[in-house]
Amino acid sequence: MGNSESSRSSNPPKDESSTALMVGGAIAGASLVVGAAIAGAGFLAWRAFRAMSDRSHNDETDQENKNVRLIVIILEGANLDQAPQEITWKPPYNGWCKVNSDASLNPGHRAGLGFLIRDEHSNFLAGATFRVELDTISNLELIAAAEGMNRAVELGFQRVWLELDSLTVVECIKKWIEKEWKVSSNTQPVHIQIQMSRIKANVSKLKGWKISHIHREGNEPANFLAHHKQTMGVMEIKANAIPRRLQEAIDSNKRGVPQLRR
Questions:
Q1: Of residues 208 and 3, which shows the higher confidence score?
Q2: What is the rounded average pLDDT of the residues 180-199?
Q3: Which of 95, 121, 177, 259 has the highest local Cβ count within 10 Å?
Q4: What pLDDT sits at residue 13?
Q5: Distances in whole angstroms, Cα of residue 140 to Cα of each of 15, 42, 43, 191, 218
Q6: 137-154 vs 190-203: helix axis angle to the nearest 10?
């Protein structure tokens, strides 16, 4: 920055076009790194610059300091040091099924749940979408997981992989199954204990069981189902009547298309 100030003191004042080139050059450089995402930010920054330039400035140094601050804001907004993370859904092992579940609290204080079950080929086997009474998001996540596990056992699967996008709930279930928490523990609310006990009862019937966390971007089909039901109650999703958007999300998972998490 010191060299830049020295250069300004020895050179004649820059006109608007040279200053614009400085801002435009910074935007172009950032665009090479972040592509189309920075283009929109660059346009807005240019509009802001034009608005600043339209004002009368007697102090050239003050104007250029503002331009430098504008460039810094543009580059910081681009998050150049934070590359997007690729999130990819993985199918279950051979002979296993995978249950993905999710819950939502929508505007208007409506609560939704959803789960779907897929085989080792990523094919849809069963699913459901719920509209239920308002509850805590943790308990809603537990109910969705318990419903999905119950359906998998009903279908006769002996090896079930449960996956959620709530890391907190995943860790709670792990501790419960591994007996770090006792079913009779008074430290957990009754409604939490009920759902945990449902999950544990189904796990006890299985020959193989696994639970994992996936970021929300990789749990899109379950997220869709958690928001899909508009009226109170439950609606089962049939394999021959899958909503278009759900089918698209399932197909994307099946192809192994990564979703970007920023």
A1: 208
A2: 74
A3: 259
A4: 47
A5: 61, 41, 42, 10, 19
A6: 20
